[in-house]
Amino acid sequence: MELGVFSFGDVQRAKDGSLGPTSESVTNLLEAIQLADKVGLDVFGIGEHHTEYFPASSPSTLIAAAAATTKNIKLTSAVTVLSTDDPVRVYQQFATADIISGGRVEIIAGRGSSTESFPLFGYDLRDYDELYAEKLDLLLKINASEDGKVTWEGKFRPALDNVEIVPRPKEKMNIWLATGGNPESSIRAARLGLPITYAIIGGHVSRFAPLVELYHEAARQYKTPNADVRVAIATPGFIAEDAKDAKDTFWKAWSWAMTTLGKVRGFAAPTRDHYDAESNRDGALFAGSPEEIAGRILELHKRIGHTRHIFQMDTGQLPHDKFLKSIELLGTKVAPIVRAALEEEKKKEENAKNAKA
Question: Which fold has domain 2-356?
Answer without folding.
Answer: TIM Barrel (3.20.20)
